[in-house]
Amino acid sequence: MRKxxxxxxxxxxxxxxxxxxxxxxxxxxxxHILIADDYSDTATFLAELLEALAQDGTTTAVASxxxxxxxxxxxxxxxxxxxxMSMPGMGGLEVGQHIRRLYGRRVVLVAxxxxxxxxxxxxxxxxFDHVFLKPVDxxxxxxxxxxxxxxxx
Length: 153
Known about the structure:
The chain is of the alpha/beta class. Helices cover 39% and strands 18% of the residues. It is built from 6 helices and 6 strands, in the order βαβαβαβαβαβα. It has a 6-stranded mixed beta sheet with strand order 1-6-5-4-2-3, with helices on both faces. It is globular, with a radius of gyration of 14 Å. The termini are far apart.
């Protein structure tokens, strides 16, 4: 598996095989996960992987741009939103800020970007719980998604 960079306080902790709760038992149950990336192959792959590994009650929604991601988030509050920072039009940073204003800390926000400057902007915005530089370490993303439990009202 490829090893990749992660930024941010929560993401900086190494999720090795010994500490990853996905080893043997997946924790994706009764979650709604939003994935937004203008590269449809990336978004579809992540959605299909999460659905294949998930237990009953977990759903995914895929958006190809920021406006669609925000619309999907408004229709059904995600537990986790994985947002590409470089989508055309409304980027992931802006979408994340809107989702944070709508739902507060009841949504775990994950930023993905191939640009170091955008990763730093996402981290400094304080809206994102995790920030990844692309290409993303799939195992680490799955571990974070599976162990993320947003605040409940």
